[in-house]
Each structure stands twice: as C-alpha cells, then as structure tokens.
Amino acid sequence: MNLMTANAAVRYDPAAASPDLLVAAIRATGYDAAVPLATTSPLDEAEARDAEQQQEFVALRRKAAVALGAGAFAMVASIPLMSGAGSRTTIDPLMHAITMRLVPLANRAAPWLVAVPHVVITWTLLVVTLAVMVWAGRHFYVRAWRALQHRAADMNTLIAVGTGAAFVYSLFATVAPRAFTSRGLSPDVYYEAVLLIIAFILTGNALEARARRRTAGALRALADLQPRTARVIRGGIESDVAVASVQSGDEVLIRPGDRLPVDGAVISGESAVDESLLTGESLPVTKRAGDSVIGGSINGTGALRVRATRVGAESMLAAIVRLMRDAQGSRAPVQRLADRISGVFVPTIIALSAVTFTVWALTAHDAPMMRGFAAAVAVLIIACPCAMGLAVPTAVMVATGRGAQLGVLIKGGEALQRAGDIDTVVLDKTGTVTAGKPVVTDVVVAPSSRYTSDDVVRLAAGVESLSQHPLAGAILAERVGRGLVPGVVADFQSSSGLGAAATVDGHAAAVGSAAYLQQGSVDVVPLEADAARLAALGRTPVFVAVDGALVGVIALADPVRATSADAVVRLRSAGLAVVLLTGDRRAVAESIGREVGITTIVAGVTPAGKVAEVARLQRDGHVVAMVGDGINDAPALARADVGIAMGGGTGVAIEAADVALMREDLGAVADAIALSRQAMRVIRQNLFWAFAYNVIAIPIAAGVLYPSIGVLLSPVLASAAMALSSVSVVGNSLRLRNALSP
Ligand code: ADP
Ligand code: MG
C-alpha cells in the first residue's frame, strides 16, 4: 500500500474475490478506489495523479477560506454574548480572552451590535456552523462514522468527536437555554471554536496537499519530459504522429532543439544531445550513427535520424518513472516505529481525553464540567497523528526524486536507509573505476611459437566474438583494425572472471587469465615475465593458448575515467573506506589504484571471491556498498548491503541493483551516499519533532500545568498547532529538493 502515490498491490484468490468486489469493499470504508487500466502508461498515471492532487488542494483551500470567514464572523457575533455576563467561562480560554478585549471596543464603535438580541445571534450562529460542518467538514464526520462502523478510529475520529462535542453542547444551549439556567449553568455557545478548529485543520490539510504535490515534483518533471508527438518517416513521407502510435522500428526525425520522443539508435546525422534530465550528466553528449539515444533528452543543434527501439511502456523514461513511483511509495524500516505508534495512538488519545475530563470534573473548583470538557476537546484536537504519518514517506519521496534528477535511482526507502549507513565502498575496477572501454596495446608472441601476432589476435577474437566481457570487445576491435578475416567458431564456453574458450577453425583456443589457462594445464611460464612487465604499466595481460599450448599474450589498457580520482577523494572525505576489488592481476590493480588514490586492493579474485570479500567485510562489522557494472558483478552486488550498478542506462542494471546510476561517473556514488545521509537526517528530525510535539503538547492540553502555573491549551490554538506540525514536517522534507545542488 503506497499512501503517497495512492497505489495498492493486491494478491487475491480469483475464486473468492474480484477486483470489482475489492473496490466495493474499499468504498464501503469511506475511501475511494479504482482498478487501474492495464493500458495506462506510468507517465499518464503520474499526470492523472497530479491533476487529482491539484484538484484536492483547490477544493480544500476553498473550504478552508469559507470556514475561516465563518469563524471570524462568529467571533465578532459572539461579542454581544460576552458583554452581558462578564464571568462567562469558556471552552476556549484564548477565544474568551480575545473576545473580552473586543467587548469595550464594540460598545463604543458599534453599539447597535451589542443591542442585537442574544437569541437571534445564537440561532444565526447555529445555522452558519451547521452549514460549514456539513459543507466543508463533512468528510471528517463521514469518515469518522465509517471508521466507527468498522470498529476503527483515526484522525477523523478525533476531529469529529472534538468538534462534535462542542457543537452538541452549543446546540442544547441554543435550543433549550432554560434547561441550563434552571440548573445554575450559563447557556454558553462555542460555535466560534467549532468553526475555527475546522478552519485551521482544513488550512493545514490544504497546505499539506500542496506540499505533498510538490514532493512528487521530480517524478512529474520526469513524466513531463515525454513529448506528445513525433515526426515519423513512413514510406518516405514525413508526418507528425502521436507518440503513442510510434512503433519499434519506425524511423523518427529529430530536428534541432527537439525533445527526443522515443529511445532509439541513430541512423544518420550528428548532434550533441543533452541527457542531463535523465542521467544527471551535465555536459551534452555527441551522438553519431550507431549511438543509442534516450527518449526525453534534448537534441542540440544538429538533426538526427533515429530508428525507434523501445517505445511506450518499454521506454527508458517509462521504466524510470515506474521505478521512481514504486521507490517513492516504498517503506523505510524507520517507518515501522511510526506505524506501530500510530496504530495504538487514536484509542490511547480517546482514553486520555476521557481521563482528562473525569479528573477535571472531579477536582476543579469552579465550572468543573466546563473545564473538563474544554481540556478533553483540546486533547482530542492537538493529538492528530498526521505529522507522524508524514515524517518518513515525504522525505523518501523528495530524496528519491532529487536522486533521479542527479542521475541516481534509489530503489526505495529501505535502500535509502541502508545507503545512509554505509561505511565501506567496494569498487569493481573494470567498467567502474575505469571506462570499461579497453584497447589492445601490445601483442607478444610466445617464443618458439609458429603463430604470428596476427594469428594470435585472430584466434583470440574468434573466442571473444561470443563473449560479453569488455575485454572481448577490445580484442574484436583489434582484429577489425588489423583487417583480419573472422574464423569459424563453435563450442563456446566462458568462465566468469577467468576467461573463455572455443573451437576456432578447428583448433581448441582459450583466452584468459594465467589461472584460467593453468586450469587447462597450459604452461604460462614462458610469457610470465612479459605479462608482469605489462601489468606493472597498468595494462591487463590476457594469455592465449591453442591446442593446449601457449601462443601469446595480448595486453589491454583501460583508461581510468576522468572523474574517478575526484570521486574517491569525495568518498574518503565523507569518512568512507574505499576498496578496489578486481579479477585482474595485482600489478594492474595497484597501478590503477595509484592513479585514483585507492590503497586497499583485493586483486585476482573470481566473481565468487568478490562475494566472499564483501561477506568478510560485513562480518567485520562494516556496512558495505558494492559498486559494479551490473552484469558479471551481480552476485557481489546482491550480497552487499547496498548494490550500486553503474548502469549508463541499460535496462538490466536499472532493475538489478538497490541503486542504479544513470551517469557513468563514480561521482554519482558519492552523490547517492551523501543524498541518503541527508535524507536520513531529515527523517530523524521529522520523527523527533512529530513525537516531541505530541509528548509535550498532549499533557499541556490535558491541563497538567494548570495547577502549578495556570497554563491551559486553547482548542483553537491546538488545531492551529496541529496543522502547523504537519506542514512543518512536509516543509522540512522539501528541503531535500535542493540537496547537493552546487
Ligand atoms: P574485473 O574484476 O576487473 O571486472 P573480471 O572479473 O571480469 O574483471 O575478469 C578478471 C580477469 O579474468 C580479467 O582481467 C581477464 O584476465 C580474465 N577474463 C575474464 N573474462 C575474460 C574474457 N572473456 N577474455 C579474456 N580474459 C577474460
Ligand atoms: Mg567488471
């Protein structure tokens, strides 16, 4: 159940229930529900929800304004009621004090007002109050009633009981004043208190609705990135069509300055494309034929022809919006405390309120019933648990939204909380610290081998043609660069983190680390010295064997990303331990480590070894984030407390990790951790204030300070304070919108 995005996932037995029955059951509790259409995209959903929230805000604002106006009118109209009996006790000490101040003023400025018969005033106020309760406050009473029918109580119960009690008392005093006077009580009415309590609570709700809508701002901004139309070329004819009707495979024309309507691959043209809103990468990226582009990014000054690949709900933008929607409604573990307290809160408050009434009624010297009644109402009104309910979800919402703007997709409250606790960051080398785009630098042929350097490249490339490893791409590129013809490949086998083997042109070829070839009893000693020399230069040596005999070593250099060294400095200064973890040789890892400033290095480990290393750190009491490129590091990502995938926008990586980085930049890791820490700080502040507010305000409202220093809480003031507490919690969360801005 996701209260922020108003979504619920339900598992049901089709033999016993149906979506329509479920909807009917929810409606019976006083809330509304609808089955989402399978055809609506997450983008449309976000839009519809936004329109709904805006409507809710406008409606609440109107009701609050009318109730405030009626409350002000009631205050003025109550002046003449006070002018006679100066000793009138009241349900609301604050209102009483204000009105008493106004009495002499009214006597002088508007003597006619004071002359209006009291019956006329009380009956007018009765009608006005009833009208406001029915029109503006109806939902409080309806929901409280429905909750009661289900033997539940919520914040509406507190408001309904509080204002309802004050109203019923006033109603009797208006209709049958003699019943009061004959018992020596004065027939006072408290319509102004009822009206102002409703007005303040509605004002608080309106402000909260507006602020809550703003917490979804980042999500909405993402949904807004989707253009409405696309210029498609079909059968040689250009035409503008609705984005929803673009098919995968369509040719789409992107004009300068256009927002890209779909994901695709560039067919022709060249242009710098601004992807900052999706990836957080601030510089535009140059796109040429063959490059992939993301829907929602902004084209620069060139024109592009693009072949649509992923459209509609499949698109990256839709995937991100969906992910954000799920993330934003997910629960953070800290929420559990707030949930547990909220669960018993309302019944506890009602009991406290009853105790308050009883104690006052039995002990107060003057007007005991009256005072007991006032304090009981104040307790009910001040104790609304709304701030507690908002403390965590609003912060999760804003923080994950801010993350999306920075190119950091945090997959929900739990990931956010764990990321805030990280003390150790383990970095994969290839594709994480380095660009993951290695190039072949050296080819060394084994002494006494009958193969040439070209043969070594050709045979190795044959094996690698079926591999997904970054090194494989580089060796293939080298073959193409040398203009060598591809071989015939069969029986491909790969060992993750070690190497790969296949039959190439009838020969059994193997490519990989020394350990990998040694597993196949190949003697690597003849080239070990060369490999060590190359590794010391920071180049990764891979050995090539044919028919069980070593034939050569290919060295590959993978340049360190320009941003890596700065990112390591940032991680370090945030107090984090940084570890470089790689399947590559120690010498290569040390050379890369020197370049970026990492001294703790674990090298030569298999993917299973990476998992073991993460587990070892955890056993030593560390909270570990593993940063990898998402595919071959998957087990270690899963084992770590927080798995961070350098996605660069591949769908797999986005789905797999706790945190997916849309930007190929280690700086995003530092951003993710810093943002999570800030969010957790805000959450703790929110929870602290929401609790502290209740712990302090409820006893005051009950009157514990009255015997010693004569302080009582006015119910009207209580309703204003309650509204303010919710608004301040949401406001505090909204500060995260500017987190990490330069
Ligand atoms: P990293 O930890 O740096 O991401 P991997 O665990 O993916 O590296 O690989 C570790 C080592 O295994 C590489 O340095 C390389 O020597 C060898 N290796 C793995 N796969 C291949 C492959 N397809 N071709 C050649 N060598 C490979
Ligand atoms: Mg790797």
Notes on the protein architecture:
The chain has 742 residues and is of the alpha+beta class. It has 29 helices and 22 strands. Helix 7 packs antiparallel against helix 14 and helix 14 runs parallel beside helix 29. The chain binds adenosine-5'-diphosphate and magnesium ion (MG).
Largest sheet: 7 strands, mixed
Shape, principal axes of CA atoms = elongated
Q: Unreliable stretches, pLDDT < 50, 5 or more residues? A: none
Query: Which percent bin holds the helix content?
Result: 40-55%
Q: What distance separates the N and C termini?
A: 36 Å
Rg from alpha-carbon coordinates:
35 Å
Strand content: 5-15%
User: Compounds present?
Assistant: adenosine-5'-diphosphate, magnesium ion
Average pLDDT, rounded to a whole number, is 86
The strand line-up of the biggest sheet is 10-22-21-20-11-18-19
Task: Tell how many strands the DSSP assignment holds.
Answer: 22
Helical segment tally?
Answer: 29
Q: Which secondary-structure class do the elements indicate? A: alpha+beta
Based on the model shown, name its key terms.
742 residues, alpha+beta, seven-stranded mixed beta sheet, six-stranded antiparallel beta sheet, 29 helices, 22 strands, 55% helix, 15% strand, elongated, binds adenosine-5'-diphosphate, binds magnesium ion
